[in-house]
């Protein structure tokens, strides 16, 4: 007798979902993967797992037996908030943890760290003004890069930065032990890291605790003329405080890949600020091929063992 069909709906908004279904089907040919609309209510009533990209809670509620959702994104703050608002505290959220994503992000961290380290923004400004003015060179081993967040992405970024010769310090909720990294946690640890870093790189999740974490107070604790790279989420930075710190010359430069509103509105101050580099959320793009293979492995493990992969701690928000 042939096995019953195991159905896994893909639940996404139009913008987020494009291109995923073929990649997911290629990774899991034994399953029936299709957009939610292609399943009947009777079929949805049997589904235990769904793959999601910005799903609406109402769509998820059409699956009363749903045990967990697999996000194709690493950042799930919107899904956590939407499900909490909808009063759905039980559903497990599994986010994407993909070594390829960590590698891509680590490459971006290194690229823009070098951009700041070798004073490229300053030389670009000097060229505009036809100024021939060498800036004194400082070796990477005499510069500290501070990583906010030492999770899947921060850990890989730390390795890449160290192999390029930088001193690396990191901050996380629980104190980490990573080779060669001076690790910090807690409020005091944050102050220490801010006081040491020439370049601060944000790789934190957006949660109630990290929203607005980089603000007037934290900027004031940073080294004069230090720079910021935000590759995490826009709302972790208090934008107006950042603007004041840059205008006052307290901070040297900000490389921003993420913003509170995306796409960044045309009339935003960031576009034309001389001390800001704007990137269109490109530091860590998801690779649909490697991500689909990871989603497939998670779903296969669940089918064999009934084990839900490590999931988001709903109260902590990540
Ligand atoms: P992760 O594995 O969950 O790591 C998060 C890190 O942040 C952990 O080290 C965690 O500490 C720390 N952390 C969380 N809350 C904290 C707090 N209140 N105080 C101190 N440390 C705290 O996440 P990830 O996979 O590295 O991803 C990080 C974020 O990157 C995602 O949430 C997403 O928003 C963003 N992202 C951006 C892009 C892009 O293209 N720009 C792409 C992918 C992801 P513990 O280790 O103690 O738990």
Task: Detail the topology: elements first, then pairings.
Elements: E1 7-12, H1 14-17, H2 20-27, E2 32-35, H3 41-44, E3 49-53, H4 57-60, E4 68-71, H5 77-85, E5 92-94, H6 99-117, H7 120-128, E6 144-148, H8 152-163, E7 167-172, E8 181-185, H9 186-196, E9 199-202, H10 216-221, E10 226-230, H11 239-247, E11 251-256, E12 276-278, H12 288-305
Parallel strand pairs: 1-2, 1-3, 3-4, 4-5, 6-7, 6-9, 7-8, 9-10, 10-11, 11-12
The structure holds NADP nicotinamide-adenine-dinucleotide phosphate.
Residues 74-75, 149-154, 171-174, 203-207, 209-210, 231-233, 257-258, 281, 283-284, 318 line the site of NADP nicotinamide-adenine-dinucleotide phosphate.
Question: Your description of this structure?
Answer:
The chain has 318 residues and is of the alpha/beta class. Helices cover 36% and strands 18% of the residues. The chain has 12 helices and 12 strands. The protein has helices at 14-17, 20-27, 41-44, 57-60, 77-85, 99-117, 120-128, 152-163, 186-196, 216-221, 239-247, 288-305, and strands at 7-12, 32-35, 49-53, 68-71, 92-94, 144-148, 167-172, 181-185, 199-202, 226-230, 251-256, 276-278. It has a 7-stranded parallel sheet with strand order 8-7-6-9-10-11-12. Strands 2-1-3-4-5 form a 5-stranded parallel sheet. The longest helix has 19 residues, at 99-117. Bound molecules: NADP nicotinamide-adenine-dinucleotide phosphate (NAP).
